[in-house]
Amino acid sequence: MSDNNSASDGGTETATHPVSVALENRLMSHGYYVTSFEWLDGEGETTSPDDGIGIALEYEAVSDAPAVTRDEVGAVLRTLLSIGEERSWTPGRLEVTSFATDGAVRGRWHVEREWFDRLGADLSQVEFSGLVLRTVRDRPSGRDTD
């Protein structure tokens, strides 16, 4: 992790934790272990980032599935959106790479900043999910997994 060296607090994190630590702590309960978290649009505040700041996220998935699944995408998004809601913050572009425990790339997916901005306004959760799932690419073939 790049934001600090805090250990997991068992799910009782507060808004004083950096976004990366809160995300790491919560995703562990879903079997996803954050291996890299970087702000895309500058340095950003770690506990209260500016709206629209992008994130590059990499994690290791403890899963038998050879590629990124809908449930996986949903868990990551629900977790990030929950953290954003607690902090009155909207994330920007999200770029994600999922790895297997052996280090092989399971897939990549992303969310455009505009989709986060429109969610709940003129974009329903179903429409939002559909847009995101269409970005999922498996490896090594590069095929859509939707």
Question: Topology, please?
Answer:
Layout: H1 19-28, E1 32-39, E2 55-61, H2 70-86, E3 94-99, E4 105-111, H3 113-118, H4 125-133, E5 137-138
Parallel strand pairs: 2-3
Antiparallel strand pairs: 1-2, 3-4, 4-5
Helix pairs in contact: 1-2
Report on the structure:
It comes from Natrinema thermotolerans. With 146 residues, this protein is of the alpha+beta class. The chain is built from 4 helices and 5 strands. It has helices at 19-28, 70-86, 113-118, 125-133; strands at 32-39, 55-61, 94-99, 105-111, 137-138. α1 (19-28) crosses α2 (70-86). The protein starts with 18 loop residues before the first helix and ends in an 8-residue tail after the last strand. Mean pLDDT is 84; it is low at 1-13 and 140-146.
What count of helical segments does DSSP give? 4
Calculate the mean pLDDT score and round it.
Answer: 84
Radius of gyration equals: 15 Å
Strand order of the largest sheet: 1-2-3-4-5
The counted number of beta strands is 5
Strand share of the residues?
15-25%
How does the helix and strand content classify structurally?
alpha+beta
Helix % is: 25-40%
Low-confidence stretches: 1-13, 140-146
Give the H and E element order.
Answer: HEEHEEHHE
Condensed summary:
Residues 14-139 form the DUF8159 domain. With 146 residues, this protein is of the alpha+beta class. The protein is built from four helices and five strands; from the N terminus they run αββαββααβ.
